[in-house]
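User: Teach me something about this protein's shape.
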Amino acid sequence: MVMASHLLAQGFLSVSDLQKLEPSQLSLDEKVAIKMTGRPLPDIEISQLGVSNNKRYKRSFNSEWYEKKTWLCGCEVRNALFCFPCLVFGGDTAWTKDGFTNISKMKERSEKHEKSKKHIENVITMSLLGSVGVQARLSEAYKLSIIEHNRKVKKNREILSKIIDCITCCGQFEISLHGHDESGDEKKFESELHKHLESSTVFKGISKTIKNDLLDCLLHVYRDHVKKEIQEASFVAVMADDTTDVSEHTQIVIVLRYVLNGEISERFWGFFNPDNQTADGIAKCILEQLDTILQGSTEKLVAQTFDGAIVMKGKKKVIQAKVKAVYNNAHFIHCYAQQLNLIMKNSASGAQDSRIFFSNLLSIPAFFSRSPQRLSLLNKHIAATVPCPSPTRWDFHSRIVNRVYENLQSLKSCCEEIQATCNGHQTISEATGILHILSNDTFMFWLKLFHKIMPHVEKIYEQMQSQEIDIFSIHEKIANFKAAIQEIRNSEHCKNPSVTLMTQAKELCDCISDDIEHRYSFSKQLVAAKKLFNKKNFATFNIRLPVEEIKIVTKEYPMIDKERLETELGVFFSRPDLHDYDKLIDLLKFILENNLDDVLGEITKLVKVLLTIPMTTTEPERCFSMLKRIKTFLRSTVNQESLIALAVISAEKAFFDSTPNIKEKVINLFGQTKARRMDFTFK
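Assistant: First, the predicted structure itself:
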């Protein structure tokens, strides 16, 4: 008989090892040690062909049976299934000596075995072994086995922690988790991980399955944290946008915004494939996720902000209507940055000469971007390239205008060199056309005019990208922008010997001012709220309360008590020491820092609502840039859950760097979700 102590020394017992032992001759300490070692759970392949209703089918063993049957174990050598307690204490030869392989009879045969008297006795004995009885508790072998088990678990968790570090590092820098050539990569690992990868035969942790499992655990831990934060937050807003990825799949991105502990948080929730690209399909996708996030707290959702697809802002407004039907407080806000793009686009295309100007202007970066030789010549004359336009971001047009204006003579010199040195007829023709454009008086008039307008466009566009932009500050930014445009209109920049050009220039400025006034007209509840916190109105409101504005606000946001709000605002307007703020977030921080959120509870609620409402969908747009970097042509087949997890790691770097015990939570979840061939749970 093989000595049990010799087999136990190797730290892992296979079915073949257990069959070599004689149950009756094993000591109590040896049986405890075998129990602590655990049942062998190899990946085995048992399959069987069958026919049913004239159709062929194939049944295969699924490793999930290990989780369903806690007594089940397997042998990769004999490719068969066994009963672990019966192997240790003796039992039915079919489950201890021969092994079970008839997969088509798996359900009934396993249930029959579970009902046998010997199996039940063995399971009870195994369960009580080492945990019941004074002798067992005081057994030195048992204590040593616990110590040894925890030592191994600690080592296993350290190895897994380093693997998680590698995955999060790759995710944060948006690089692939594996490549076509990984030779020599092991030299980069720490010595302990290097040793594990070289020597381990049970669990290396670098397979595709393990990586996906770890990504799933990372995503699960992150989402649990976000849901917990939303439970603590008073209100939440949802931002959504859509795009088509490299695999031609529609991707809906969902970002959540809420205020917690006086800080505004915008959390990436994930990418999702709707059932179809209609309004109904997109609305269903968004509602399913909101149901998971809010878990029945329908009153918390106070805003929905969409951008992108026409279906999201169509005449019927299907998506926002479907969301509002479920979440009554979720008022729709159209992205203000997108509104600015539409304002500038409509204004610039209003006059024929300005349309011609932009068509000619955009032909310049297009000409140089089509040829590396042209770019090389351009780099000789100017320090930077002329940026290509973006169909969705007007600030790219601003960069083109500024780059062309600032490098006008250099661009002319470059086109003249292309004329003199290139042989291609089309290239010479296009260069001549651009040279003619750059020398045209009408083109130069519009270039100088837009060179004055564009810095203001770029400034307000950048201001709208801020996470802390709110209704109060955005109104001030818009007013400043309108004033700057009107100043340009009345300046010499709009004057020209041609009456037609001068008229079109002034009409352009008027169109921008009028359109921004129309598109940025707030809904009635936001107009009312803006008035309530505008310090210019406080002297008047101190004499007479703004009853109508309070009525509008409390009607649209029924979670705010009208009578209590009137009382609190009456005190607020009369206290100059509460008026020292420039932004609403400053007011909220002041209230929280001085523990006034109880006495000014309704004001605090209203401020939180206003801060929760997103003015732009900037964060979803950033997520799409991240999507293009993660899901490339070389990695177009990544599954959706792994894609979301990698995107979370990239988008939420600060979360993974600042959240304590994040790896411990991931490791705990990883060890609990499936039966692993290495232990990760302490005893």
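Now, about its shape. Residues 140-172 form the longest helix (33 residues). The mean pLDDT is 83. If you'd like, I can walk through any region in more detail.
User: That's plenty for now, thanks!
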